Amino acid sequence: MANGYLVMVVVHRAMARDLQQISDAARELSQRPDDRRTAALIQYADRVFQLIDHHHEGEDDVLWPMLRDRGAPAEALDLMTSEHHELAELLHQLQKIIGSAGNDPAVLAEVADKTATLRQLLVVHTADEERELNGRLKPALGKKEWGVFERQMVKSAPKWTLRFMPPWMASAATTPQERKALPAAPVAWLMRGWLQRQREAAFGASA
Asked: pTM surpassing 0.90?
């Protein structure tokens, strides 16, 4: 199994985990205001929303067209694209809302609700995507294709992701095989404490 697939699984897991924690924290803060923690949550949530958006744009712009060119089944790729459209609509709503949340309890409650819905949609989508990547799309995916996709993702990512992504992915890896598949292990090790402090500031004891 290609390392690219294992990286994808870990990224999906990190996204779903963080969306649950963002929703829970926003709900808590809507009921028990804490200005400092709310500011930290807004910053962290904005980064996660950007990561999800960038991840799906990369698949739509690079990975799926590349697989179409290699004869991958159109039905599988159409499913991925349609699910991305559904996710993008809600995600972009959330990005606008989180930017104006402040410490307004009503807005934070809306963030909690919409993020929970986004997580539900994402879990369905990632299960479909992992099934297709390891099934109908697998014959068109080799090390070369994964390499093209991964290089383009790094090239197009915001600069702040260079220190955020490695420890973030490592924090969601659960097996030695997954940890070995992840890129930038030295950066992940060096920045793990920094990431944990960001998560604790946003999520408190549940980080």
From this structure: yes
- Residue pair 182/170 in contact (Cβ under 8 Å)? The answer is yes
Are 171 and 207 in contact by the 8 Å Cβ rule? The answer is: no
Residue 103's pLDDT is 81
Q: Containing H/E element for 167?
A: helix 161-170
Question: DSSP code of 34?
Answer: -
- 173 three-class SS: coil
Handedness of CA 143, 145, 151, 156 (dihedral sign): negative
DSSP annotation of 205 reads: G
Average model confidence (pLDDT) across the chain: 95
Residue 188 contacts residue 163 (beta carbons within 8 Å) = no
**Quick check: 1 pLDDT over 70?**
no
- CA proximity to 107, closest of 42, 40, 198, 17: 42
Distance CA(63)–CA(3), nearest Å, equals: 15
pLDDT tens figures, 110-121: 999 999 999 999
Q: Report pLDDT digits (tens) over 151-194.
A: 999 999 999 999 999 999 999 999 999 999 999 999 999 999 99
φ, ψ at 75 (rounded to 5°):
-60, -40
CA distance linking residue 205 with residue 187, whole number of Å:
25
Query: Rounded distance, CA 25 to CA 165, Å?
Result: 21
CA nearest neighbour of 169 among 51, 50, 89: 51
Contacts of 144 (CB under 8 A, 6+ apart): none
